[in-house]
Amino acid sequence: QYFGTAIDNPSLAPGGASYLPYSIDNSKYRKVAYNSEEFGQVTPANGLKWMFTEPSRGQFNYTLSDEIIKPAIKNGQFRRCHALVWHNQLPPWLTSQTWTASELLSVVRTHIAAEVTHYKGQCLHWDVVNEAFNEDGTFRPSIFYNITGTGYIYEAFAAAAKADPKAKLYYNDYNIETVGPKSDSVRTLVKEMRKKGVKIDGVGLQSHFTVGGTPSYEAQTANMAAFTKMDLDVAVTELDVRMQLPSNGMKLAQQAKDYNTSVMACKNTKRCVGITVWDFQDNFSWVPSTFAGEGDPLPYSSTTEKKPAWYTIAKALRG
Ligand code: G3I
């Protein structure tokens, strides 16, 4: 089992990304990010997404993703790659056109063939399709679903399998960390894929939780078991535990317990292959910009100090 982190370009580049209007002191952050003892695995948080890798149709650009993947290879950190098909962060050329189903399927195929081929042997896991379901387990009405039905899902996995037969191919989503309508639908999808002979190796449980609201150990392990008994791997792919700000000692203690629950659930599940936190330092988290008044969801403080959660995670991983 690996323990890893997502990393984004603005926080990784020395002094912060060049497009930022200010420079940040991220020297401590960079040391931790590149320390393979600390993080045995790395995921680019944004750089592999469609808007960045194929900004114009047929024109591929791997500048951002290479910035994260290359040092990870050099440091011997395992690479989980995210995400080939998602309804968010799509390039305007894709979203502003009306496509027929066969055109859009071919666009998906071309995109995946190029990106997965570029990273052949370098991306050991791929999140092939991300967040295809609504909370009630029906399919999300994305541009892909609206035009191709579920066809894009099969097309995407088949194209990824063809481009890098050795990569482990994942379906990835949030709120599928316990048994319920949404995770049940993922299991149904996997059955359908297998019936059609389309390869899928694993399911990514994003695990964006809240302090005190993390599903119990029993609930998480039961759900993992429901997947693994279908001959699937599972991975905790985007773990974070956000709180209502401001932070205090009680919240930090509960947050540490919540992290422990997810880490132990994975640790004690034979086919849970690893855990990824969705970045590791509070000020680089996606949470505050999405949930007003919430934040501090990660194991390191904004000034790269270890929080109580860091120590419980370390203990859980060692023990
Ligand atoms: O690239 C632009 C840059 O050109 C611009 O100058 C800068 C100004 O703020 O913004 C940059 O884009 C930001 C992008 O991240 C890249 O850093 C967007 O504003 C920002 O909205 C975007 O947020 C990302 C979000 O996905 C998009 O929905 C988060 O960083 C990323 O952590 C988050 O990750 C998702 C997973 O992919 C899927 N699961 C949920 C998870 C959290 O939302």
TrEMBL record:
Q: Under what name is this protein listed?
A: Beta-xylanase
According to its UniProt entry, this protein's organism is: Pseudovirgaria hyperparasitica
**Annotated GH10 domain residues:** 6-316
**PROSITE patterns documented for this protein:** GH10_2 (PS51760)
List the InterPro entries hit by this protein, alphabetically. GH (IPR017853), GH10 (IPR044846), GH10_dom (IPR001000)
Domain of life assignment: Eukaryota
Q: Where in the cell is it found?
A: Secreted
Report which reactions are catalysed by this protein: Endohydrolysis of (1->4)-beta-D-xylosidic linkages in xylans
Entry-linked PANTHER family: ENDO-1,4-BETA-XYLANASE, GLYCOSYL HYDROLASE
* One Gene Ontology cellular component annotation held by this UniProt entry: extracellular region
